[in-house]
């Protein structure tokens, strides 16, 4: 069974290569169908492997089994979290491909295979990263998914802003990758090992952490946190999400950003959690401080958007912050909760992006003010957006709610309040959009423009082109079926009894802490907090719609919004500052050691 | 403010790196845990060039990823550098080439091509291999652009076959890996072919096969990549002047138009 692990990468890559080779001569239907078949096949494979992942599968690529405890080969780790992420990647890729079938414009002549082939390579890169048990191999797949993501983001090259967004994405993420590579070089220089577990062993054998371990930790984490869009590395994400084609947004927000969080968990747990790594207190400090800053920034910025895709992008940032706080507890309960939260969030967020894509293709705009009351006929979509918003808020029985309740109980104290508030605000923003766009509630917003300094920092989202090439007269069934299925999946993740416990068992089987069986089920407190944040979200949205002036005071958040300047130099400067902040937060580990 | 951020962040990062570098093992030490193991493994598979053994045997799975990155870059740039609706193609004018340049270029072209193929073919024996040789072979073709003109180059490299060959080379790397899996060992295991005689062309098992796949992939990829950028610079022309895309703000950024990224305009077009 373990020999099949590399196929998670090889199958999509082979599919992509064959599509690229024959794509010139294929009609679009055949190319799209073949891509869907390949990603469905790899999804089935991932689920099959996941079912056999206890005890964790390990595979030495090329058959280089260790001799006397040492190997020159590459380790692939097929444990619960890795294969779970891979399965999530495959399922979301299938959803995005099915959705793109009708949502995207006809490809230029002779390029029918290019878009699906790129999506398949993206899938292969993400799967490879999820199952990598070797630090350098993880870097290779990290780069692969980055390169494809830049190209996919800039797919609509006719628009200047698509190129600009993709460029910001490429520059910031490439710098993150350099940091990651430098960190790998430092760790390799110390240990002479590349397999994650072996690096950890060698660090432990060397003694307490010193400046080199600190620098390795900081640089590796910088790379991963850029991908995870944690503050202050998050600037690329809204610019990229606003311009990427909708199916690509579903993948970026649904699973690629979460893979950054997953990488943080994997690297800390396998490499730095021993006595030669970083003491738990310091890791906790790093993750919870950055997580809290990320959650607050994401929530505030999300509330102040009117460009619906940017709004959803900031909501992803906010939730990433919550994931980081959950991991920062360094408890099995926190890990279990975050794992389940990630699964639920992927379904909900991808569905919300799919709905935003429907608005864009149907009305040629993703601007909350311009669309006011115009989407009244789209009742089904309205129901899905509201359901998605409640999923973000953590209304039981969504998977997000179950995961969030576990993570917030593990975090405890003020973080519980942060969890409730962040999820409520991000949900309220979506509910506000739904009330205005689909129901036409509240006063019609005055037309934008001529408002001086405040508007200069506002992206309206009205100058967009429909991705389908022309405005659709009616919404194709696949475009509504995909978000409906994704929401159903997110609901099932929380509602199906035993799913949460299965996730917990898969996660705890993989941690170095050993087998700790926690059973994940609904608790009265968790249900209560979920209901509370949902109520809070509805109340906030109601006030925002009825009295637009009261909650949307643009001036107060202006300093924060001004930071999102669109200037790549600013983003790079913040990346440097972020690296320094990481170093300062982790510094006590070395001073005391 | 940006400068302050760069100063603070850069100083912090520099301090971190300096502190870390002071703790690096000394230069010229005798402890090379991975190097020792890699050389031993290379010799056990009759591979004279240890670097090739690492890239195409011991860590062939990494090379699969690296090849895919190049493949994805080619696919991505073909998509991004496509001729958009507001652009058209201008036929480049032939330009005069001074005779010594022409003679030299046409003389060196076959030599450079042969050198590239040699470097690919001897990857398992001597320094070099698919990545290096592929680049040499691909650049050799572009001597035609120097020695003749752009249209001569275009005749020699019809892009469709090169794109297809790029993809097929990537597939053949994967198929070689899968064949090992089907034969009952692990993916990309070097168990299909006999290891041959040390330090001859027929040695190292599947290393020469993977090496050749990479060589073909890299050569085709470089040709297609260069063609994409050369087309933008030489042939593809904006229709009309710059499009106005001013309303994006996100903070008042001014996006560059995809098509006018280069500093080319009609008057600047030449055949070469």
Quick one: overall form of chain A? Answer: globular
Question: What series of H and E elements makes up the topology of chain B?
Answer: HHHHEHHHHHHE
Major sheet summary line of chain B = 2 strands, antiparallel
- The helix tally of chain B amounts to 10
* Oligomeric state of the chains in view: heterodimer
Overall average residue pLDDT of chain A: 88
What's the total helix number of chain A?
Answer: 23
The SS-based structural class of chain B is mainly alpha
Shape assignment of chain B: globular
Biggest pleated-sheet summary of chain A: 2 strands, antiparallel
Biggest interface found = A-B, 103 and 88 residues
- Point out poorly predicted stretches of chain A: 448-456
Radius of gyration of chain B: 24 Å
| Strand line-up across the major sheet of chain A | 1-2
Cα-to-Cα separation, first versus last residue of chain A: 43 Å
Strands of the biggest beta sheet of chain B: in what spatial order? Answer: 1-2
Provide structural commentary.
The complex is a heterodimer of chains A (593) and B (272). Chain A has 23 helices and two strands. Chain A is mostly helical and 593 residues long. Chain A has three domains: 1-133; 156-278 and 562-593, no CATH class; 280-446 and 460-552, no CATH class. Chain A has a two-stranded antiparallel ribbon with strand order 1-2. The longest helix of chain A is centred in the N-terminal third of the chain and has 32 residues, at 160-191. Chain A is globular and about 70 Å long. With 272 residues, chain B is mainly α. Chain B has a domain at 44-82 and 93-238. Helix content of chain B is 60%, strand content 2%. Chain B contains ten helices and two strands; from the N terminus they run H-H-H-H-E-H-H-H-H-H-H-E. The two termini of chain B are 44 Å apart. Residues 241-272 of chain B have low confidence and may be disordered. At the A-B interface, helix 1, strand 1, helix 4, helix 5 and helix 6 of A face helix 1, helix 2, helix 3, helix 4 and helix 9 of B.
């Amino acid at each position: 069974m373990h020999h099949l692990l590399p196929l998670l990468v090889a199958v999509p890559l082979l599919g992509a290569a064959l599509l690229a080779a024959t794509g010139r001569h294929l009609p679009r239907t055949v190319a799209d169908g073949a891509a869907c078949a390949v990603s469905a096949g790899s999804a089935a494979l991932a689920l099959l492997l996941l079912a056999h992942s206890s005890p964790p599968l390990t595979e030495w690529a090329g058959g280089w089994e260790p001799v006397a405890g040492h190997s020159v080969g590459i380790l692939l780790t097929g444990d619960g979290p890795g294969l779970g992420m891979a399965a999530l990647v495959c399922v979301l890729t299938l959803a995005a491909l099915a959705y793109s079938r009708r949502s995207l414009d006809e490809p230029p002549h002779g390029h029918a295979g290019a878009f699906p082939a790129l999506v398949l390579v993206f899938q292969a890169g993400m799967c490879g990263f999820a199952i990598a048990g070797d630090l350098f191999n993880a870097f290779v797949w990290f780069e692969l998914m980055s390169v494809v993501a830049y190209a996919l983001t800039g797919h609509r090259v006719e628009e200047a802003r698509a190129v600009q967004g993709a460029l910001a994405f490429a520059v910031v993420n490439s710098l993150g990758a350099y940091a990651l590579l430098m960190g790998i070089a430092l760790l390799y220089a110390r240990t002479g090992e590349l397999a994650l577990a072996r690096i950890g062993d060698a660090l432990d054998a060397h003694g307490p952490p010193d400046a080199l371990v600190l620098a390795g930790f900081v640089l590796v984490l910088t790379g991963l946190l850029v991908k995870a869009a944690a503050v202050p590395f998050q600037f690329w994400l809204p610019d990229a999400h606003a311009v990427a084609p909708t199916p690509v947004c579903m993948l970026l927000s649904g699973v690629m950003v979460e893979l950054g969080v997953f990488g943080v968990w994997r690297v800390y747990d396998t490499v730095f959690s021993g006595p030669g790594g970083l003491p738990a207190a310091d890791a906790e400090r790093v993750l919870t401080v950055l997580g809290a800053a990320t959650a607050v920034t994401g929530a505030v910025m999300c509330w102040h958007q009117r460009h619906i895709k940017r709004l959803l992008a900031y909501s992803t940032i906010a939730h990433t912050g919550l994931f980081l706080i959950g991991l920062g507890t360094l408890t099995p309960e926190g890990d279990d909760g975050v794992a389940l939260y990630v699964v639920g969030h992927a379904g909900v967020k991808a569905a919300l992006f799919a709905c935003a894509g429907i608005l864009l293709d149907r009305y040629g705009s993703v601007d909350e003010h311009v669309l006011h009351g115009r989407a009244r006929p789209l009742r089904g979509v309205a129901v899905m957006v509201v359901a998605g918003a409640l999923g973000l808020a953590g209304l039981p029985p969504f998977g997000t709610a179950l995961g969030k309740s576990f993570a917030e109980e593990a975090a405890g104290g003020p973080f519980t309040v942060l969890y409730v508030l962040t999820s409520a605000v991000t949900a309220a923003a979506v509910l506000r959009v739904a009330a205005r766009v689909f129901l036409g509630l509240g006063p019609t917003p005055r037309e934008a423009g001529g408002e001086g300094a405040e508007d200069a920092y506002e992206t309206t989202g009205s100058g967009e082109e429909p991705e389908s090439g022309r405005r659709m007269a009616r919404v194709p069934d696949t475009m509504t079926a995909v978000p409906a299925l994704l929401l159903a999946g997110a609901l099932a993740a929380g509602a199906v009894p035993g799913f949460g416990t299965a996730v917990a068992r898969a996660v705890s089987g993989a941690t170095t802490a050993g087998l700790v069986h926690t059973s994940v089920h609904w608790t009265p407190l968790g249900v209560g907090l979920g209901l509370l944040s949902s109520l809070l979200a509805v109340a906030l949205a109601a006030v925002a719609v009825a009295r637009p002036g009261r909650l949307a005071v643009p001036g107060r958040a202006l300093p924060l919004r001004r930071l999102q300047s669109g200037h790549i130099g600013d983003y790079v400067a913040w990346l440097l500052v972020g690296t320094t902040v990481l170093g300062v937060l982790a510094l006590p580990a070395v001073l005391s050691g | 403010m940006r400068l302050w951020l760069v100063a603070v962040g850069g100083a912090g990062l520099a301090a971190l790196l300096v502190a870390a570098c002071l703790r690096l093992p000394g230069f010229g030490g005798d402890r090379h845990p991975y190097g020792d193991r890699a050389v031993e493994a290379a010799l056990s598979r009759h591979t004279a060039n240890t670097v090739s053994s690492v890239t195409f045997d011991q860590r062939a799975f990494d090379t699969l990823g690296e090849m895919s990155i190049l493949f994805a870059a080619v696919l991505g740039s073909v998509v991004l550098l496509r001729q958009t609706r507001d652009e058209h193609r201008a036929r480049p004018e032939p330009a005069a080439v001074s005779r010594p340049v022409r003679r030299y270029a046409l003389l060196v072209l076959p030599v450079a091509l042969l050198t590239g193929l040699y470097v690919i073919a001897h990857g398992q024996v001597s320094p070099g291999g698919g990545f290096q040789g592929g680049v040499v072979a691909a650049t050799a073709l572009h001597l035609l652009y120097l020695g003749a003109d752009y249209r001569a180059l275009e005749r020699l490299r019809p892009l469709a076959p090169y794109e297809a060959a790029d993809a097929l080379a990537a597939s053949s790397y994967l198929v070689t890996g899968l064949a090992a899996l089907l034969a009952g060992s692990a993916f990309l295991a070097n168990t299909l072919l006999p290891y041959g005689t040390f330090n001859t062309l027929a040695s190292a098992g599947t290393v020469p096969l993977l090496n050749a796949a990479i060589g073909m992939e890299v050569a085709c990829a470089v040709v297609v990549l260069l063609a994409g950028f050369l087309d933008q610079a030489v042939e593809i022309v904006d229709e009309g002047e710059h499009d106005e895309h001013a309303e994006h703000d996100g903070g008042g950024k001014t996006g560059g138009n995809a098509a006018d990224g280069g500093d080319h305009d009609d008057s600047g077009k030449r055949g070469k």
